Amino acid sequence: MTALKALSKTALTVLYPRQKCTLVLRGNQIRNLMSRQLVYNEFGDPLQVVKYRECEVPALGKQEVLVRMLAAPVNPADINTIQGKYPVKVNLPSIPGNEGVGFVEQVGSEVQDLQRGNKVILATSLQGTWRNLAVFPRTSLTVVPDALGNVEAATLTVNPCTAFRMLSDFVCLKKDDVVIQNGGNSACGQNVIQICKAWGIKTVNVVRDRPEISELKKYLTNLGATYVFTEEEMRSAQIFKGEVKKPMLGLNCVGGKSGAQLLRYMNHSSTMVTYGGMSREPVIVPTSAFIFKNISCHGFWMTEWNKHAPAEAKEQMKDSLIKLMLTKQLKAPTHKLVKLKDFEEALKNALAPQGFAGCKYILDFTD
Ligand SMILES: NC(=O)c1ccc[n+]([C@@H]2O[C@H](COP(=O)([O-])OP(=O)(O)OC[C@H]3O[C@@H](n4cnc5c(N)ncnc54)[C@H](OP(=O)(O)O)[C@@H]3O)[C@@H](O)[C@H]2O)c1
Questions:
Q1: Which residues line ligand 1 (CB under 6 A)?
Q2: Do residues 151 and 171 share a domain?
Q3: CB of 120 within 8 A of CB of 141?
Q4: Are residues 164 and 151 located together in one domain of the fold?
Q5: Where in this chain does the record put each Enoyl reductase (ER) domain (predicted)?
Q6: Tally of CB atoms within 10 A around 13
Q7: Partner of 114 at 20 to 30 A CA spacing, among 96, 171, 183, 231?
């Protein structure tokens, strides 16, 4: 291997039918590329099972692309996947991370429509984005504009898309209609607020009380929230007595009593969509909500939608979201960037069993 490293690039290409991922040094000498990455060999507590490693970037297949990652978020679903509690199968050892953004470094010999320097995001899940250098199938990548912010791009495919679909696919919302949601400060909730604002829809946002509640309310209001209430304040809120219409759509991020509370304020024949279970409590639906209010309850899972949706629908959603982002109508969620070496901080906060993490943790691979 040492001898190989000293060979010229041409010589190596002859030796390897697959394209070798190499770094060309001065004097035409080459060195194999190393990827800095996180990996787990068993399911369990992320703080115990996720390890840092450096390993050689594999050879590039004809339809593959070498990507230098810029950023990748730590989402609740990533944590649940590492714990072995998420309903998707991964083979071990596995590199975590479902979404992220990077620059194309090198393309396989049959990749015609991408070139070095393109900014790309992962369009399919389970590709393992928590690494600075990665070889991905061409089909897993989508080009995004260079002007799109790294954090917006890195977090585009999960929460903005989930918010967009839930606001589009269940109820035909018109200007001045009202959407109520819990977890209003979640990354997904922040996207709901901003998309609604852009579409002229009002939002009633329920959050948990905390010492810095006034800062949180101010932040969400600046994003475009029409109302922000703590769970306690919501119980005595009078806004549905004439100030605003009753919501036709409720978005349930939390479950348990919090989800049941949303139903109390929702309109007759409205729809509640459950997409998260942050309280780890089952969804509670009082019998009266079904019988006397004819409320429909649905679930939504972005992964499932992606499996069946036509390419044009995906393209249209992506374009709409990017347009909102580029015009600053859709900002990235509150976040903290952490370097790969500090990944434990990101895991610890993303894991916080009682919540109150306060922001989305994003792995930052830039030097
Ligand atoms: N179905 C789908 O396709 C889909 C797509 C995207 C996300 N999701 C789900 O949506 C949820 C939010 O995801 P995200 O990325 O937006 O998460 P996030 O930014 O980390 O936000 C988490 C939210 O959950 C709340 N929370 C945390 N622990 C809680 C607890 N014990 N009881 C009540 N609330 C709690 C937090 O509120 P505090 O600030 O009060 O802690 C915060 O609002 C997750 O369950 C995720 O898996 C589902």
A1: 75-77, 158-159, 162, 183, 185-188, 208, 253-254, 275-279, 300-302, 354-357, 360
A2: no
A3: yes
A4: no
A5: 45-351
A6: 14
A7: 96
